[in-house]
Design a protein that fits this description.
alpha+beta, Alpha-Beta Plaits, 6 strands
Length: 113
């Protein structure tokens, strides 16, 4: 069973291949990815590495967490599952939320009598 690791605070110039090579001494790397900004394509400074076994992931975490890579102290820990749902920002139904605060009616707009 594979184990996914979050790797934060990596140099912005680091590529996915480099990230994977960094973890190879600790076990078999099944995938590595550096997350980039959708609009600019620039690295966001973090990525994910998937290791073949839990033991390899633990060894990599212990060896690499807090080490300086490219002048930055990287953070390595177990990746958390993304929450299910809409994603992409908050807010929800703001008008409905506001109307609930005003007794079920929308707030007044314009000058008051």
């Amino acid at each position: 069973m594979t184990c996914k690791l979050y790797v934060g605070n990596i140099p912005y110039t680091m590529k996915a291949e480099e990230l994977g090579r960094l973890f190879e001494p600790h076990g078999t790397v099944t995938s590595s990815v550096v997350i980039s900004d959708r609009e600019t394509g620039r690295s966001r400074g973090f990525g994910f590495v998937e290791m073949e076994t839990q033991q390899a992931a633990t060894a990599a975490m212990q060896a690499l967490n807090g080490t300086s890579i490219g002048g930055r102290n990287v953070v390595v820990n177990l990746a958390r599952d993304r929450p299910q749902g809409g994603g992409g920002g908050g807010g929800g139904d703001r008008d409905r939320d506001r109307s609930d605060r005003f007794g079920g009616r929308p707030p007044r707009s314009g000058p008051r009598d």
